[in-house]
Amino acid sequence: MSIDLGLPQRPLTKKDFTSDQEVRWCPGCGDYVILAAVQAFLPELGVPREQVVFVSGIGCSSRFPYYVETYGMHSIHGRAPAIATGLATSRPDLQVYVVTGDGDALSIGGNHLIHAIRRNVNLTILLFNNQIYGLTKGQYSPTSRVGQVTKSTPLGSVDTPFNPLSLALGAEATFVARVMESDRPLLMDVLRAAHEHQGTALIEIYQNCPIFNDGAFDLIKDRSQQQARLVRLQAGEEVVVGAEGERKVLVRKAHGGVEFVDEAAVDRSAAPGAPGSVVVHDPTNPDPSDAFAISRLDGPEMAHVPVGIFRRVSRPTYDDQVREQVASALHAAGGASGDAELDQLLRGPDTWTVP
Amino acid sequence: MSSKPVQTLRRVVIRFAGDSGDGMQLTGDRFTSDTARLGNDLSTLPNFPAEIRAPQGTLPGVSSFQLHFADHDVLTPGDAPDVLVAMNPAALRANLADLPRGATIIANSDEFTTRNLAKVGYQTNPLEDGSLDSWQVHPVALTSITVEALATTSALTRKEKERAKNMFALGLLSWMYSRPIEPTEAFLAGKFTSKPEVLAANVAALRAGWNFGETTEEFASTYAVSPAPMAAGTYRNVTGNTALALGLVAAAHRSGLPLVLGSYPITPASDILHTLSGLKRFGVTTLQAEDEIAAVGMALGASFGGALGVTSTSGPGLALKAETIGLAVSLELPLVVIDVQRGGPSTGLPTKTEQADLLQALHGRNGESPVAVIAPQTPADCFDAALDAVRIATTYRTPVLVLSDGYLANGSEPWSVPAIADLPELTVEFTTEPNAVTPDGSPTFHPYARDPLTLARPWALPGTPGLEHRIGGIEKADLTGDISYDPANHDRMVRLRQAKIDGITVPDIVVDDPSGSAKVLLLGWGSTYGPIAAAVRAVRAAGHHVARAHLRHLAPLPANLGGVLTAYERVVLPEMNLGQLALLLRARYLVDVRSHTAVRGVPFATTELGEVILTHLSEVSA
């Protein structure tokens, strides 16, 4: 449904994707970094900006569409995946992004998130996770850690948090990734891979809220601690953590699951898949067990935080199949219906005539 | 044709009643279809429990189908049956109170066992104890005769043979009222193509029922009802849900927009989803969502992309959709929301009818959130209501709520099928060019600039170069659509959105006042059309003067409504709620509207409304 006005073609730049709206996030908010990265990334797609749509819900992150010079909808709390599903299904020519936060996607909109993921709709979902409600001024979120003291939990939260990636994998996700907001190269890589992916790509972006949850990710941002905690997932390679000399390697446990062991203690003779064998990261593995096990490495204590692409598999998309059913029915009937076919439809099989 | 004497009747009301698993809805549907073919006017009322299979033989499990057919135009499914077909004691017990003395009861005597009688509290068998002496009772061993008729021809089990007893009943009633059974045979052939044994049994049972009527001495004569005079045309029988679905497809075709339905299963609206999901050949996309909120969200997302976004639901679902409809009000995008009302509050009476969602439809959202509201008045009228809803939604870029109800949804009537080419033109123009200039003189796009006539904003689709823009639920600045918290701007936008709805073109309400001397006006909206019109007709036939008018547009209201209300000494408004429209009209027009209400889950009875009218007439003339 794209309309060619014969406008001159020139390579787009970040400036072309920057709207005239004043950005109103708090100074130091991690959202600025993500916005800048996305605006820098979009030109390299080579997709005209009118074919890009950002749909968001409610929350700090959900103001994102206003700042990107594309089409956009700032909708209502939690519902962006549903609205984006309707848009993506009816408009295959568009690149549809959903921007959401941990409260928007995992609390009020949890149902829509898991159903968009299981359907595998052609959407890229950017889930900004700052483990707090920002726009409502500092209540705990479904990713806040147990015991977190917030405005609404003066004695500490008693809710067990969601692990968003475990949730997504349990919901039959075909593309799951995590990035630190400050890791621009990885964010660009993941956005690129998500763009190439057919179906729902969920990208969790750890994002610092300097006002209500400042320092939530310091353990993995801090250079001195980062190396011992951050697990950079690379397809086809062993899953490792730690500096040279202190390196740990991910191996399979005897009764399911995975664990890091000192590199020196690794039994390289163990048969692939056997207890003690090294885990070689394969995001394309149809069996999501390894990806799930890796997602479980992360916890509130942030001992080991995997980043990168956890899962990237191929499965028919919802919107393609919905359109295919309609297209097949049209094809079988010899094309679009005209007045004669409509008249036949209205009459149905059982008519009588009054002269 | 029967060889017994034929008596001619002008009108007949038949109620088929049985257990939920007895196939009463199918039996009624088939009798209706054959009746429609004969040219009688008709109206139907299915009445069934929410449970799929309540315990067998119990009162909660009774399902019924009522059909009113006549040699003249029929406005309602009829107050009281002339004939009750009772497939078991529960069906008799549940329906006897509706049956006037002297009416005919055909009862399946096989089911009147001690155990079945006890299930519904009969101490003795009413077919034998004289308690039904005021009625004409015909006990017929429907089950055993059916099984016997199939004894030599069918390899089916006894239980399977018994299941054909509804066709035996249909055959008997078809004989009694001179209906042909060949169309039903053709229907069965299509339904049971892959089950020849079942087909053979059903056809044999149908014929056995017809032959039983012809040979037994139980029935002395048959009856005939002549065709009703109807305008020339091609007719079909149609339910409200089917008519609505067809109306949406026709409207999409006339508008050139692809139809996208987002829906979540809910009684009594699900048939709209079922019907449309089978019409992919017409370019229809149906999305069964994870919940009611997602369903309307998907429809709205599709509208944003330039499709005709529609969602269908019932009252509880409308409540869940409220926030998204509010978003659509703010986005000013076309959206059609169909609410097939049922008894409430909460889960209420899922399979029964009510009109108690009016205030929810008009006002059930946060903030000043005006929408257009349309109420169809008969099953076939649902087709026109759908077209009208699409016209308003696309012309004014607004959500439109269509208030059908359980009676319209499942009830049926003959419909003079229009030609597609004769339907209104609904072509939509998308905006493809900038519509404003920036202070420095370069072209730009203002998503909230308005058409001066309709106050509609431009519909510029994603994919249109140069018109990139963002819309959202936060208050936006007039014209530019940028976020704005400015007090004066908000006041202006609230008033603009209201003015847009108030300015929607709707036809004047038409008053039916043949003598011109009526002092009392009967006003209605939605599915009360039939009962009110029938009651008014009866009262007029008795020599009284009474005026009648029916509202189709609840928002905006017709411009002449205030004048109509004040032109009569008394305005009487029957509603299947506790007086919701009356409340609004009293507030808005300062007219002392008299409310008559009932929320029993079934349409008003004509006689009941007739008495109400007579009471008001006597008070006014006194």
Give structural notes.
The complex is a heterodimer of chains A (355) and B (622). Chain A has helices at residues 30-45, 80-90, 102-108, 110-119, 164-170, 184-196, 218-221, 223-229, 289-295, 318-332, 339-347, and strands at residues 52-56, 71-74, 95-101, 123-129, 175-180, 200-206, 230-232, 240-241, 248-252, 258-262, 305-312, 351-354. In chain A, helix 1 packs across helix 6, helix 2 runs parallel beside helix 10 (318-332) and helix 5 (164-170) runs antiparallel to helix 9. Helices cover 30% and strands 18% of the residues of chain A. The two termini of chain A are 45 Å apart. Chain A is α/β, with parallel strands linked by helices. In chain B, the strands form six sheets. Chain B has a seven-stranded mixed β-sheet with strand order 11-10-12-13-15-14-23, sandwiched between helices. In chain B, strands 3-4-2-5-6-7 form a six-stranded mixed β-sheet, sandwiched between helices. The longest helix of chain B is centred in the N-terminal third of the chain and has 20 residues, at 196-215. Chain B has 20 helices and 25 strands. Chain B is globular, with a radius of gyration of 27 Å. Chain B is an alpha/beta fold and 622 residues long. In chain B, a hairpin with a 5-residue loop joins strand 17 (436-437) and strand 18 (443-444). The model of chain B has no long low-confidence stretch (mean pLDDT 96).
